[in-house]
Amino acid sequence: EEIIKLLAIDLGASSGRVMLGTYAGGKVEVEEIRRFPNGPVEADEQLYWDVQQLFHEMKQGILEAAKSRGPLQSLSVDTWGVDYGFLDAEGELLYSPHHYRDQRMEGIALALEAALPPEEQFKLTGNQSSPINTVYQLFADLQANPELTQKASLLLMMPDLFNYMFSGTAVAEQTIWSTSGLLNPDSSAPASEVLRRLELPVKLIPRLVPAGTVIGELRPGLQEELGSGPLKVIAGASHDTASAVASIPYGLGGSTGGEGSAAFISCGTWSLVGLETAEPILSAEADAYGFTNESCFGGTNRLLKNITGLWLLQETQRGWAEAGEPLSHQEAAELAEGLDRSTARIAVLDPNDPLFSTPGDMPLRIESYCIRTGQPVPQSRAEIIRTILESLAQSYASTIRELETLTGSPVSCIHMVGGGIQNKLLCQLTADATGKEIIAGPVEASAIGNVLVQLTALGAIEASEARTIVARSSAPVRYQPALSIIHSDQGGQ
Ligand code: ADP
Ligand code: LRH
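== Rhamnulokinase ==
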């Protein structure tokens, strides 16, 4: 029986991890080899990726896996969207890549939007305009450092950059580039009108390749250093959200579930709420609601909204830890669960309010948001956490309703994936707020999606089998909406 082992390296905002993926007997398993922090580093009041440290951590993970679990066939890196680094003509990294929570785009957004209004960005690229998008960051970089036009020869999105550092081959993988605001809506080519209007050099964009492309082998020097043998390096679904969505076991939607109408919530630092469509949805209504179009593994479209997710809770917990009163994720969830249901809804936050998007004192910002919007201020830690979770569930529910309006068909059930589904209260609140069945799992969705896409690139599985393999490999947890809420929903129809 064939056993395939490979490494999925997933760089999330709450941590980076090197995961061993094992495919055997028609099932896929992931095992954590190494987990390490992946916070932004600050220098001169700007926020950056710690590229060298991360590369070191990834190498340690490969070394460990090769020694204890080898032989390994391949590796692939996925990261969050929008961030990038530059290579010079010699193929060396130029400058440290910025982190999107850096604030250098603030000063240039108006100038960019004067040349290319948000509605046109949406029409030309399918992407919702946002100051974190690559297009805004690149525009800011070129304004601040005009010499970049000469010095930079390629722009590599972060997973492409790390895959390049491993293999020496530079490509532009479509799923990660679909977050940039620089490609056409189906991510098949650069959005030439955008580049022209903003005077961005097209030569910076490398050769586009689809998710699941073998781009080379681990550099010989690294093979020797890490004792790994000739690993293949694969451009996977290198956007973490594309990988997460590739792991969703659609088709488990229960009695009401038609596959086409199942939605997803990828629940980590961000909450990504959406569904897959055959084509990008470019209507003014989709734009006005705040949706974006990104590419999925296999070339379908992902219509989704980026909602500032458990970041709110992570930042709150970070503040408490710094004040010497740390609280684990599990303790946080349990505290909020302890509140009585009937009095637990204290205030509702809009998680996407710009107030919450940058690092800082989250409880203080929540307080000022509540005062600004005339709502009671949550006082205890339990109340603060509960307010965050209830607000996330409310914002998921309104987004699901918008999706139903846009597609003209009801959402049958919702697949929740990612680290956040370990918060059972959040899953239950989401079932209650949406009135839909929640099918939760897998937790390590990005890593599993990353593994599956590598397996297709290696020719070990067919793309069409991937979701069945996940369904076979682990059972999801189901949450039903509370009865009172179903009744009140039906009453309104
Ligand atoms: P990312 O990929 O953005 O780093 P993850 O998908 O790993 O995010 O999800 C991280 C989030 O999952 C954390 O912010 C935390 O809120 C939640 N989480 C992780 N572990 C637990 C747990 N044991 N109980 C409840 N929530 C958890
Ligand atoms: C989630 C994510 C999301 C956005 C954001 C920047 O981790 O990738 O899809 O692109 O980070």
